[in-house]
């Protein structure tokens, strides 16, 4: 993602669970900024702006702290398991020209041949890309693929400047035709016979009543 999102941070002066709860109640998110051999810096981020920025996977962030600005990406986002609100963010410092290994979401596009289904084996791919131009997602087209066709990681077309880190033989998506087992066919036949018998019995009952 090439867009640069700016977040105005404040240095965090209080620590502990109580301080974190108070910060979140005030619309802020505790975070730590680290990397490049520097000491970790604990900060508070604006809650709404951070939530919107992190909707974009691998978003490049400009963190403004006092008079300084740093480029960073979110390496870990901790969320409440029930409410799904962001509780804490780990921010990794990055520099222009630096390359990073990141996991990028796979978006399946297109339709396989009628009557077939696709099974996505991997939802992300590990790639190496420039820190200032990390892809948000990678599209994989299954248009026109038929039963037995498959796409492995090495087949996926990557954005310019991006290199595959994942195993090139790793299966990404497979196309197949749903098959009914012999047991399912027998159950279906039995259900059909039962339905036919019930229908015949019902018809006979109506005829007797008419007589």
CATH architecture of the largest domain: Beta Barrel
Radius of gyration: 27 Å
Which of globular, elongated, flat, extended, rod-shaped describes the shape? elongated
Structural class, from secondary structure content? alpha+beta
Characterise the protein shown here.
It is a single chain. It contains 3 helices and 13 strands, in the order βαββαββββββββββα. The protein is of the alpha+beta class and 211 residues long. The protein has 2 domains: 4-94, Ribosomal Protein L25, Chain P; 101-176, RNA Polymerase Alpha Subunit, Chain A, domain 2. The strands form 3 sheets. A 6-stranded mixed β-barrel has the order 1-3-2-6-5-4. A 4-stranded mixed β-sheet has the order 10-7-9-12, with no helix packed on it. A 3-stranded antiparallel β-sheet has the order 8-13-11, with no helix packed on it. Strand 5 and strand 6 (86-94) form a beta hairpin. The chain is elongated.
Task: Give structural attributes.
4-stranded mixed sheet, alpha+beta, elongated, RNA Polymerase Alpha Subunit, Chain A, domain 2, 2 domains, Ribosomal Protein L25, Chain P, 6-stranded mixed barrel, 211 residues
Write the layout of secondary structure elements.
Blueprint: E1 4-11, H1 17-25, E2 28-35, E3 38-46, H2 47-53, E4 60-65, E5 68-79, E6 86-94, E7 99-109, E8 117-120, E9 124-130, E10 137-141, E11 150-152, E12 163-164, E13 171-176, H3 182-210
Parallel strand pairs: 1-4, 2-6, 7-10
Antiparallel strand pairs: 1-3, 2-3, 4-5, 5-6, 7-9, 8-13, 9-12, 11-13
